[in-house]
Amino acid sequence: MIQHRRIPALLLGAWLGAGILADIAVTQNFQTVDRFLADPGNTATSIRLTEIGRARERVILRRNAGEENNWIFENWERVEIFTGAGLFLLLAFGERPQKLTLALSAAMLVIVVAEHFLLTPQIVDLGRLIDDLPAADPATKKFWMLHGVYSGLDILKLLAGFGMAVRIAVKRKVDKDVFAREYRQSLPKQTTAKAK
């Protein structure tokens, strides 16, 4: 039981940790553009940015950051689908599968599949359009609504993952007689009869 718990715990920990790092990376990509434009790191780059126009470069760099985020989301979601399926199978076919951990694992997998196939394609397409649209445009509003749904689902997925981690990590009450019973069951019938 203890050996079997380690593999799902390791897989779940990797999933949650990498997910948090991916979320940090995509939020920092846009902020990095403004930090870079404010302080490019050397004088020559600063002079070139001033000649070209920082406002003009900001649009290009933010578009690039958006494409980087699209790549991160699409590929990370693919990894999550395989990770989630592997975790679910480990839990389902392991020793004494628990209904709660199976349900949480399935919920996380369903969330990732919905994000990857339903939300991400729309967010990517709209994200490429909204830079040229006013904030009141329906496409811009739809983008931010879908972005909010995605973020909410991602938080829900993380909470389910942390709940499952607690469930896996917390040991159930140990049955002191389990080894004695298993040993008696493994003995041949006549030896057990003589012992009585």
Helix content: over 70%
> From the helix content, strand content and strand pairing, which structural class follows?
mainly alpha
> What kind of oligomer do you see?
single chain
Tally of individual helices: 7
Assess the beta-strand content as a share of residues: under 5%
Rounded mean pLDDT score: 90
pLDDT < 50 stretches: none
- Largest sheet geometry: none
Comma- or semicolon-separated keywords:
single chain, mainly alpha, 7 helices, 196 residues
Structure report:
With about 200 residues, this protein is mainly α. The protein has one domain. It has 7 helices and no strands. The radius of gyration is 26 Å and the shape is elongated. The model has no long low-confidence stretch (mean pLDDT about 90).
Topology:
Elements: H1 2-38, H2 43-52, H3 54-92, H4 99-129, H5 138-169, H6 178-186, H7 189-195
Helix pairs in contact: 1-3, 1-5, 3-4, 4-5
Write a brief structural summary:
The chain is mostly helical. The chain contains seven helices and no strands. The chain has one domain.
